[in-house]
Amino acid sequence: MQTYVYNRSHVRGLTPNPPVPIPDGLPFVLDDEMRPVEDLNAWLRSLRGRGCHSPRTWTGYADDVLAWARFLQSRDRWLFDDLDSLKDAVSDYREVRLQGDADEVFQVVGASAWNRAVSAMENFYGWAVEVGKISAPPFNYKVLRLPRYQRSSDTLKLNLARAKPGSPLATLRHLDGDYADMFIAVGLGGATPTGQPDDDFRGRLATRNRAMGELVRRSGLRRQEFSNLLVWEVPQPAGPFQDHISLPVPQKIAKGARARTTWITSTALEAVTDYVSLERPLHTDGSSWMPQRPLMVTDATRDGGTINGRWVRWSHLTIPQRRRLVAPDGGSGLLFVRSTGAPVSESNWRYTFNTAADRCRQFDTDFPTVTPHMLRHTFAVETLNELTRGALARAERLAELSGADPLLIAILRRKDPLLILRDLLGHRSLQTTEVYLALQDPARILTDAEIERLAEEEDFDAADLAGAS
């Protein structure tokens, strides 16, 4: 079984044109012989009526319930078997997804991801009960009695299949520096571990993928954000002595509609501009891609452009509008495009990342599974280390000049690394950002800060000093 996503533009070209009363972006499931799996498709078509209006939620629910269906198939069961059998299967499935199985067929997930899967399964079986497919959901519940002032009801049903969320660090996964370098250069870029071109590499769009990896690792953009960034919103390269360049994240593509400004390193920006100037035009210039109700762009600038004869700021465009932009020379106006010049679906990055990690395992069998959000976590950890080293070195120099306590100086100068990182990541609460503190290596930070101080005071080169130790 496999999920596919409905696209009205593909149906319009059929003759005769079949009436399909489902929205764009709704997933559907076909079996191995390309026949519809109606037990799942009927439920997916009902999602809008059950309060699920986001295509991202539809896709997530479809993936979670399809994984559950595959698990049942592997044990010669199906979605609507007898209730006791299904309850036993839920218990087994919970153990497999949270702790792993000997065959390693199903990916181990954390408590949060598992609980999202349980929510999808509850939605599915709620629908199944309503349409008479099954008598009751295959879950065990605990009924909690609550004071009326806390909820509209005096009882709360707790699904015992859910996992108790642990420490945020349990699911806060990032890549160490060497692995991050390897993932981008070898996995995404197709190089060998020594940095040389790999003649056996058969991947496509390596320049695009490597630029995307550098961008996310060095800016902390979320998948929704880098997938819908416009090519005209890429900042211009800075001078030779500027290591970080500001990168505005528009409100319309930011999580929670909270605009912010992050930064991108000059080396990462160089990778992005190389892609924009070298590989991207090969796929966009003269492209025949044309969306429904296209928004034709002319006279594009960094801030905005003329769209269908009217000048509009890019920051005012929603995600659906951005994905309908057609650049003056053809192809999508988004930064990252497919080989046809069309936009890259957000969900397609999952395949790109999985393929890149698989390639890295050819050289290191212990290489982990990588997601776009892991690169965002990597940005957070590396940036916090960098900010902390800078704050320590700066505070120590100020303390020596003034005789004050270094921590007091750092506070007075309002150079708190956590506050800076919070703003770069776009977190609402500082508490969300604080979880990265536990991932720091204090010994390494202090050693680097000491090297920087000695290098400045005694005119030593930091690299020579490190090599001599």
Description:
The protein is α+β, with helices and mostly antiparallel strands and 469 residues long. It folds into 3 domains: 138 residues, Tyrosine recombinase, N-terminal domain (DNA polymerase, domain 1); 192 residues, Orthogonal Bundle (hpI Integrase, Chain A); 97 residues, no CATH class. It is built from 17 helices and 10 strands. The strands form 4 sheets. Strands 9-8-7-10 form a 4-stranded mixed β-sheet, with no helix packed on it. Helix 6 packs across helix 11 and helix 12 packs across helix 13. The radius of gyration is 26 Å and the shape is globular.
String of helices and strands: EHEHHHHEEHHHEEHEEEHEHHHHHHH
Determine the structural class based on helices, strands and strand pairing. Answer: alpha+beta
Instruction: Kindly estimate the percentage of residues that lie in beta strands according to DSSP.
Output: 5-15%
Strand order of the largest sheet: 9-8-7-10
The assigned CATH architecture of the largest domain is Orthogonal Bundle
**What's the helical proportion of residues?**
40-55%
